[in-house]
Amino acid sequence: MSPDAGLFLSTAIRVWARNIVAYTAITALAFAPLLLWGLSVTGGGMSSHAFTRYVSLLTPMSLVLSFVASTGIARSVIGQLDRRPVSFGACVATTVARAPAALAVALVIVLVTVAILVALGLLEAAGAFGARGLTVTASAAMCAIHATFYVAGPVVAIERRGVIGALRRTLALTRGRRFALAGIVATVFVLEWAAPRLFGAIALPHEDNLTHALLWQLGFLAAGSALTSTATAVAYYYLRGDRDGDRASALAEVFE
Hints:
This protein is mainly alpha-helical.
């Protein structure tokens, strides 16, 4: 059951589209701190410039919180692939139960990413390459890191490992598949980036409509993050099946 990029993406998009409301809701619950923070600052008369700064922080913060959501979504995706749908409440329960481990794994990955980006910045300052070279190299590095730890969320959800165990297991599952996963990461990123712009949801709002714009921003961000979480769960299913021969029914049994 070697994963094929086309089959992988079509499966991920199909499962996500069929469950977009539930998966977006699960992600929105994980994003509750972002929503509360955003509403507090928009309610305080935040300017358009301040709103832009807030939006710039959404992506890195949402990447961490999306790890929390990915655990509950992973449970649902495995159930979908096994043709045994899982209730929304059960997925939320898994999200809450796995939240501490998911956050810990996410923070380790963030620290690794920051360390690499700082090292690249120092190399750029030393004249190793120019600003454009730094941008290209940093983008490639982030894509590679994401591909390397792509299935960390599902591993936390399904295999119930600790931080070190989850990272080691993720490295083992993605070994030999990271180039293909990097392509999938890039494809999903483009879809997430393009969709809200096609619908005009990211345009800078008027200052008297910041709260409305914030809700749209978070809504599209939650839906996009839900797609990423779905893709990671589908990747886990194919990678584990390719390596260990496990089917969806075997994976779903861990929740019974």
